[in-house]
Structure prediction request, 250 residues.
Amino acid sequence: MGRDDTKSWGDDRLLAMLDFKPGNDCDSPLHRGNFMEPDKPGLQKVQNFDAISSVELPTSWRCSKQNSEIGNSLSFRSATNPKAQINFAERSQPVPEQAANAFKQIIDPDAPTPRIVYSANLDSNGEGAATIKSLASALGSNLVGDNQLTSPQGGENARQPAFHLDSALVETINGKNVIAVDGWFTQMDEKANIKMGLHGPLKRYYTGIFYDADGKGTKIDQMYLVADDKDAFVSTKGVFRSSTKSIEWR
Prediction:
């Protein structure tokens, strides 16, 4: 199993060996304002990313990507576990009204949390599945929203959905309700065919939060962890969860 990244937040010796400088790949006019001097050992603070005022990440996670086809983004890759990334994705296109209303209703601040929206172990065709279908556009029609519930397999023109949804729940993070999702993406080759392993499709493991960035449900951003194998995912999920707990909202 890969190294437990939750134990490497202050591993200055390893970072020095790697000639690591937090955030140095995102030192551009667009993203220079996204970094603050860390006020805690082993941590860097990312600030002013849309609805997120600030959030803390270990200095062992390096900003590695600046652009996205669907909007502004920041991506951080673990120096000690490079198969894992933490991403911040800002949606550029408004969510359709029906999906926006469904999202707002689900994250209603007066509703109790935590609350299960869907679990693959508990509900395959019931109310939870119907709720996920109503959120397809809000979760990204070609990404998390393209899953086994919104694009079921079967029939003459069946295809593998992009995402397999394990669970979705509403939780409160520092006063703001979000939808927390767990699951996995299918890995694709250069010809857009699904990569297969000995036991089925190769997976990219995912955990993330979707949050209302404009107060209307029409702009839904996400922060998420994705890893190329299960060991990398398991050993870095704790880092991601700790980071989400540090979020300060605008």
Summary: The chain has two domains: 1-92+230-250, 95-218. Helices lie at 12-17, 97-106, 127-134, 136-144, 230-245. Confidence is low (pLDDT under 50) at residues 1-24, 28-32.
